[in-house]
Design brief:
Layout lengths: L9 H18 L3 H7 L4 H10 L17 H14 L1 H9 L2 E2 L9 E2 L1
Antiparallel strand pairs: 1-2
Helix pairs in contact: 1-4, 4-5
Protein name: Acyl-CoA dehydrogenase/oxidase N-terminal domain-containing protein
GO molecular function, one term: flavin adenine dinucleotide binding
Pfam family, one: Acyl-CoA_dh_N
Length: 108
């Protein structure tokens, strides 16, 4: 069975590999313990922010990563493989902008 149901370009494949490698090394260890304890993985969230995962699908002019939605979903899928709870945090903390300040994205 293929690893994905759509064709990924070179940048998307590189992103997939980078996020998977990081997730396996730094997210998977302790995922079950965090799930049982209900601990909020603050340091992992900060790491994802530093990696730019939260802002991947937003334009660079707004402080985003300038990537398409498929690239963002590749990252989400790779995180979900090892820690579904962290993925929910990622999806719930999406950057947004208002019509009064479309030049800026902020985490809500």
């Amino acid at each position: 069975m293929p690893d994905t149901v759509w064709d990924l370009d070179g940048e998307q494949l590189a992103l997939k590999k980078r996020v998977r490698t990081s997730a396996e090394a730094e997210v998977r260890p302790g995922a079950a313990q965090r799930d049982q304890s209900g601990e909020f993985p603050e340091e992992l969230v900060k790491q994802l922010q530093r990696m730019g995962v939260f802002s991947l699908p937003f334009p660079t002019r707004m402080g985003g990563g300038g990537r398409d939605l498929a690239s963002y979903l590749v990252a989400v899928e790779e995180l979900a493989r090892v820690d579904a709870s962290l993925t929910i945090i990622l999806l719930s903390k999406q950057p947004t902008s208002t019509s009064s300040r479309p030049d800026r994205c902020v985490l809500i």
